[in-house]
Amino acid sequence: MTKRIKNREVKVCPIVLRKSGSTLELLVFEHPLADVQLIKGTLELTDSSVESAALRELAEESGISKVSSTKYLRSWESGFQNQLWHFVLCEVSESLPNNWSFYTQDDGGHTFNFFWHKLGDSPKFKCYEVFDKAIKQVENLCI
User: Fold this and answer.
1) With contact defined as beta carbons under 8 Å apart, do 58 and 39 qualify?
2) pTM of the prediction?
3) CA–CA separation, 61 vs 100, rounded Å?
4) 81-91 pLDDT, tens per residue?
5) Which uninterrupted H or E stretch holds 74?
């Protein structure tokens, strides 16, 4: 069961960043059926907070479970299917590789291919408009 606020579907978007020289990079992944995306999922009735939902989604979709801290960044009216997104910065306590694949149970099971996108650069990948706008929101919050 999912939480709805004023008939909006509430989404959480854990943001994982890393520093590469003087640039910030954002963790993104390629979905085998739906282009490049940010990790995102629905706030469930069993979630105690937006931050706990972000940690759950991060683990479910990427396998990342070692998070040293979280920081709520802001909400965002996505303009997509009446979704309200909550961005949560997740400080990962381990060094992550440049790219990796993770098999998730999402939608019956998929392999997600993770990589880093330099914030401020034009995307060199195909993604749906809502994710392009979400990446711009993250850029505005973080650089």
Assistant:
1) yes
2) 0.94
3) 12
4) 999 999 999 99
5) strand 67-77
